[in-house]
Each structure stands twice: as C-alpha cells, then as structure tokens.
Known about the structure:
- The structure holds three protein chains of three kinds.
- By secondary structure, chain B is mostly helical.
- In chain B, 74% of the residues lie in helices and 1% in strands.
- Chain B has one domain (28-271).
- Chain B contains 15 helices and two strands.
- Chain C is mainly α.
- Chain C has one domain (2-267).
- Chain C contains twelve helices and two strands.
- The longest helix of chain C has 31 residues, at 12-42.
- Chain C is globular and about 65 Å long.
- Chain C starts with a helix and ends in a 5-residue tail after the last helix.
Amino acid sequence: MYKLAKTTIISLGTALLTFGLVGNAPAKVEGDTIVLGAAVSLTGKYTTAGNHTQRGYDLAVQRVNSMGGVKVGGKSYRLKVIYYDDESTPARGAQLAERLIKQDGVKFMLGPYSSGLTKAMAPVTEKHKVPMVEGNGASRSLFNKGYRYLFAVLSTSEQYLQEAINLAAEQAIKMGKSPSSVKVAVAVENDPFSLDIRAGVLDDAKRHGMKVVVDDKLPRELSDMSSTLTKVKALKPDVLVVSGHSKGASLAVRQTTQMRVKTPIMAMTHCESAKVTSAEKFGMRAEGILCASQWAPTMTYRDNWFGSSGDYAKTFESAYGYVPPYQAAESTASVLVWVDALQRAGSFDTEKVRDALSATNMQTFYGNIKFDETGKNIAKPMVLRQIQGGKYKVVAPTKWASDPLVYPRP
Amino acid sequence: MNKALRTSLGMALALLILAAPLILPNYQTQLAVLWLMVLLALTWDIMGGQMGYNSFGNIVYFGVGMYTTAVIQRGLFFDIDEYAHVAGGTGSQLSLLDYLLGLGLGLTGGALLCVVLAVILGAGILGLRGHYFAICTLGLGIAAGEIASGWDYLGAGSGLVTPLFPETFFGRGIFFYYYFLTLASLTFVVLRYLYSERFGLAINAIRDDEDKAESMGLYTTRYKTIAWSVSAVFLALAGGAYGNLIGFIDPLDVAFAGPTFGVWMVLMAILGGKGTVWGPVIGATIFHITQELFWTYLLGWQRVALGLLIVVIVVFFPLGILGWIRERWPERFGERVEGKQ
Amino acid sequence: MDNLLLLVDAPVFSLQLLIDGLLAGAIFALAAYGMALVWGVMNIINITQGEFVILGGFVTLYLSYLGVHPLWGVPVSALALFIVGWGVYRLVIFRIVDRDLFISILATFGISILLQQLMNQIFGADIQNADPNLGTLFLFNDDVAIANIKFVALAITIVVGALLILFLRKSRIGQAIRATAQSARAARLMGIDTDRVYATTYALNAALCGATGSLVVMTWVIHPFIGLIYTVRSFMIVVVAGLGNLAGVVVAGLGLGAVENFAGFLLGTEFQAAFVFSLLVIILVWRNYRLGKKRQYLR
C-alpha cells in the first residue's frame, strides 16, 4: 500500500513542480519587449479563420517592430505575442485566457477567433481587469454585459446582413411591390456568431414586415445542406441568407449551383475566407452573391503603419501569398489599436491603458475606430459587396458603393 | 517503511493538497480541473473497470447536470425572456448568498434529474452487452449533445452563460478548487466503501461472468442500475459546477464534450489501471499534467503528441500503471508469489 | 408540420430528398464495407475510418491539382490508402488485434486525433473540394436536381461491393480472410498466415475509405477535422446491417442517407443528427428487447 502512497506523492510533487516551473512567467513587459497574449484556433473547426487571425497579428507586430516599435514614456519597445491553441473550443479558450493572464503575466490581451471563444474569454479578462482588444468576436451579446475591459474593432453581427435585407426591400419597392411581400430564407450554422447573424436578419425582416419561410440551423459538422436547399427550392424565397463560417460559404456556393437554387438575392458571410471567387475552385458559381464584409482592400482609409487599405492588402499578399480576408485585417487593426493606446497612455498601468483605449479615436487602414461605452466600434460601417465578373464590388451602403446592384443575381 | 513515516507522509500530502491553491494562486483553475479529472476517471471506473461495462456515454450526466444547474440558476433570479434576449447575464451581480443558493439548488436539481434519467435510460440500455453497450452509450452521448444544441430554451447553439461569480474575499478559483477537491474526495471515499461491501463483490461478479452471477441468484439489473446511478450523481454534481467555472456553456464543446472529456475519462482510468481505486486517481493526475505540458510546449502539434500518447498507453500499458506495477511486484499487493521471499 | 404539408403539396420534393439521400447513403456505404470487414475479421472497431476518408480526399485533391481528372482519384486514393493502411497495421494495429475490442477503439481514436492534426499541418485547414465537372441531372422542371457525380458514386459503390464479394469468395487471400474471420485459431492451424491476412484486411479497409474520400471530395467538401461524421456513420450502418453482410451494408447505407435527409427536412437541420443518433439508441434497445424475450431473465 505504501507504494501507492509514494507513487501518488511523487506524481503530485511532480505536478506541483512542473506547474511551478512553467509558471515563473515573464511579466507584461520584459526588458524592451511588450508582451501581448492571444489564444487562436490552430486546430479544430475554426482553423482557417484562426490562421488568418494569427497572420494578421504577426504582420502587424512585424511592421510595428520594423518601424521602430512602440514609444512609451520616451522609450522604444518591441512587440511580442504569446500564442496558445484554443482548439476552437470555448472551454479551452477560457482556461487559456486565465493561463495567459496569471501564468504568463500578460496584461494586454488580443482576441481569439469567433464570438463563441470571445464569449468564453471575456469574463476571465474582465475578472482580472486585463483589457482585451479583439477583432473577431462580433456577437451582440458581448456588448450588453457591461464589460469594461473588452474593446472590439469590428462592427457587431446584426449589421452584417442588414443591408442585404434593406436592398431586398428597395428592390421590391422598385418593382411596385410592398416590402412585406418579400420572402426570406435563413440557413445559418448552429454556433453563437451565425445565430447572432440570424437574430439580426430576423429583426430586420420583421421591421420590413417580410415573411421568413425557411429558418434552418445547420449542424456544425456540416457537410451537406441539400435538405435545406430543397426546402428553399420548394418555397421560392426572394432572399437567401447563409452564414456558416468558411465551410458554410463553400458549401452554399457549390450546392446552390449544383441544385439550381435561384433566389434573386443571395447573401452570405465569410466569402473572402472561403475564397469563393477563386476561379479554379468555384469557377463563376459565386457570381452575383452578396457578401458581408468588415473591410475591403478597395476602401480609402489610411494610417502611418501600413498606408492605405490597398497597400495593406499588397503587404499581406507579398507575405502570405493571398489577398487578406477581413479576418486578417481586423486582427492587424487590433494590434494597431494597442500600439496607439499604449503610446497615448505613456505607461503600462492597465487602468491608464484601459482609459486610453476607451478614448481611442483613430483612423487605420481598416477604418475609423472609436469605441462607445460598451466597447464596440461605432465609427466603422459594414460594407456589402457583390461578386460581379469574379471581382468583389461594393454595392452598399451608398457612401462606399462603387457599382450598382445586379438584380436579380445571374 | 514504518507506520509513523507513512502517516507523516500522508499528512504532508494532505496538507499540500489543501494548501495547493494558496501556494500556487496562478494555477487555481488548472488544479480545480485536476480534481475534476480525478472525479471523471473514478466515476467512469465504476462501470468500466469494476463492472466491465465500457460506457462512452457517461458524459450525458455531466452535460445534463450542467444544463440543469444553469437553468435553475437562471430561473431563480432572472427573467428568462430578458436573459435569453441578451444571451446571458446583464452584468448585474448576484450577492454571494443568492449565488450559493442558486448553485446549491441547481446542483441538487441536476443530481436528482440525473438519477431519474439513469434509472430510465438504464432500464433500456443496461441490458445490452459488450460492444453493443459501448456503441449505444456513444450514440446516447452524441444524441444528447445534438438535442441540446437544437433546443432554443437552452440557448441552442449559442450556448448559455452562467451567472457571474460574485465579488467576495475569496475568489472563484479558490471556491471551485475546494468544491472539486471535496467532491472528488467524497467520490473516492464513497466508492471505496461501496467496493468493500457486497455491492463491490456483486459488480465484480457481473464483470467476471454476468450469466453465472445471474444464475447464482444475483439481481444483476438492480446492481447495474445502482452503479449507473452512482456515477450519474457525481457526474451531475461535477458538471453543474464546471459550467459555472467556465462561465459559458457550449452544448457540444463544454457540456456534452464527448471527443474530449468523454474519451479522456476512459483513458485516464485505463492509464492508471482500471478496476482499482487508486488507478483512476493516479491516471487522471498524470494525464492532466502531461496534457497541460503538451499544450504549452508543443503548440500546433499537441494533438499529434496526445494521439501518440494514447496509442502508447493502450498498446503497451493496457493494464495501466497500477496494473503494470502489480505485475512486476505482486508481493507489494499482498499476493503470494512462488519462488520469491 | 409545415414541412410535412409541403411534401404533401409537392410530392416531387420528396422524390428529390429520397434520391439525393439514397445516393449520399451509397457513399457512406462504401466506407462502411471496410468497417464491417475489419470488425468482422479482426474484431476491431476502427475509429480512424473518417480520417482515412479525409486523407483519401486530399490525395484526390492533390491529383486534381496536377491536372488529372478527379475521377482517377478513386483508384489512386484507394491505392495510396492501401499503403497507409498497411503501414498503420504494421506500426500499431498488429499489437492490438487479439486484445479487447475496447482497446482497439481507444487506440484507433488516438491514431485518429494524431492524423487530424498531422493533416492540418501538412495540407492546411482550408475547406477543399475537387470538382469533377460532371454537371447535374435536372428532372421535373428543375424541381429535382441531382449532381451526376452521385450516380457515379452509386455505380462505384455497387461495382466495388461486387468485386469485394468476388474477391472474398474466389481469391486465395480472400478465402483466407473468410477462414480467419470464422476462427483465427483454426486458420492458423491450417497454415494460414493470419498476420498477413489481418494486414491485408486492414489495408483493404483503408483503401475502401480512400475511395470513399475521393467521392466525398468530389461531392461535398473536406477539411482535416471533419472525419468523425464518416466514422460514426459507418458505425451506424454496420450496427444496423450486422457483420459479414455486404448486401445489408448497402441497404442500411442507402436507408441511413434517406432517413437523414427526411429528418433534416422535416425537423429542421438542427435536429438531423439528434434524430439519427436517437434512432441508433432506439434500434439497439429494441434489438436487445427482442433478444431478451428469447432469454430468461431474472426478475
């Protein structure tokens, strides 16, 4: 029996020891390096977008460091990011946030990818009063909890496809019909982000008095959406809304053509991330689809780090070999917000930095950034782009529109 | 080793365990999860190790307990429509007393529901033998997760946010560390008692030969149902608290996390040595630490390493660490070996 | 209810769901052949099934990058996976053949998560598909639309199934496989190299999964972490069909595909998987109840 006791003691001892050793972590600032912490999805269902996120962060860090770093209180500091893999699961994300803060001593957090993960991490950062700037958690429910330390550079999810519904209403009026005659089909993935998109679309449809004829939640292990599309064919809606991260976008583009599902308006999220305009992957199948975008390389914002939006796209493409989807851009912007806030705060005191963050009012290549008291960015609109001739053309809102809407989609 | 030394070592260990969250305040959550892991392995071993019924579906009770607790907590103090509309708390804090009341009632409700569920499900499923039982419970685990993720009352795929832990002089980490420590110890003591009783002999008889046990006049169905319910109670109590520790219940990744917790509980029991009392405890400790280290040092490859580890465990140590030690030094376990001593 | 009325009003859509589901089921059945084989012969439940499918899909995908028509990927993936399967057997599986069934489940689960992340590191996490450009069959004024690749998949499933039966009946090694399935000990006594038989069986299973993967990448999409659903479906099909019954596997596969499609349509896609798995539990319990009536239980 004592053998057992000994084994237990030895294993427990090793446990505490290893934890202890791992835990002698660097503090928030080591020498001349400012340490940011991030948990991103390197495995699991969000891996594609998780990679975009990580590359966005890396690119910003590289650029900032090569341009002299961050000047705080008259001294230049370099940036560094500590990454962990959250495996696309919220349980892991929450634990990693705690690990970053408590064991690695991180005082400045960057967000993970997806609303679900952000939802799991925000209570932790809030509890430890560590500010987090995130660019990939769009769910509205993040901004009604009274979080003080959460700042999001992106527009919230109800805005993603609002313009698509408005466009449908406009078109109905143009054709002499009432917007309430419009029928809407919604097919979204069963995860926090997409369900939030759905909630936004349902609200907008209700506002216009439209009828929602299909309302399907697609499973997360999605591989086939033909039964939903059959329903869409049977009910002939005027608008089809699809949201399901990259996988949902790929499948929808493929299967709507395959099954000849024709709706005058088809709106999606994550077109860029799924690369639906790529000729060898999809041909011209994505023609006429409306894509909600947080950002587009054709926009005319500028900053000192990357130059214009177009310049950013070029820099990113030369580094990683593809046009940056907005997930990368908003991640890069999150780092730039940190840089700006740290420089203005002139200190590493988290409270001062938090106040500097909440007073942010800047333009980046990604757009204007100004937070309201709940921490969401209110200075940047969403754009809606239509795929015309294999290229993304901004069709709404009017201020940014470069081309008119092609209706109905070919 | 003499008795005095043993006692003092035991005391030291107990002290260390009690003081761990204070010595290592940065690791409170991981240490709390360590006890959760121990509990998961112990409860799996009731069926899998002692009774020979390999279940992949025990995670059902973990998830049901978690949701029941959260729903009761939500229902007590919040307007459900409003809570659902903003998808979680409104930032309003509960007082410590209210929080504990909600949690206590929630855990009780979860545990009761799980016993009822275990009896009902057991009536149908416990008659299955061998791999059909394993498959059926696997199906049960997946089905439960899928139902939860389609059910709007539970927040469907958006998940459910549990009430925030109130601000008090002791933190959330400390509270849940001691909660899980107490629960795991309680499980351990209860199981040790049960195994030393007629119950232990009965379920071992079922493992060794169910038909014979039955023909000897043993009420096998009754014992199987009791075993299934005991693991259900402890899993429900663990699940309910874990939901509060994480703060955000996702139906597939947190509550009915079959591919992670559901499989790990089996692995940990096997690693330590299934069918023993100490095996799951040791297995869980080692597994948890190894896994945390993989996560830290093998970024992007941690699952490759974990996969390798699993293969090595089950291929080379199918009897587990304790089983292996027992084979090497059987005399330590009070077995008489000819030719030695 | 609305959905049911819709089917009553426009029965042509049930035709769409039925055909589409049956054909999807044919693809699942192909992977299920392999699982039935390995389970029946080696008494191993192979959780790695889904990862083999995805790996087969990646082989076909990379072949299509070389400008080869993805349909050629079916034999090529099968061959590539045959080799992978042989390798996995020689590395791990041979150690667990005689062990408890449960050990095999865990060991193959380990291999499966290992392969997932390995594929992620090698091929990247992007959602991929290889388009065979075979077009779509439209019937009834476009109301029924079935991608032609699915018919090809059905044909391949049937041909492969027939070949497999022939192989098991006629060829020397096939007969050895069947003999080993009946009694490994007796087979060994008769001078059969059971180790070789097991290796062939396992590799054959991997090859079948490879072919499935090739069809999957042409029909739907793949990425490294989506394998589990194919494992689980193979599993269900085999449980329903029983071991050693290839014709039953086809029927069960087609049935599963159709049931899934109708469940998704009628209950909403969020309950599709829930329905299928609840069905699995119910089938097993019901089966046990039927068996139990024959046995005398102690009350």
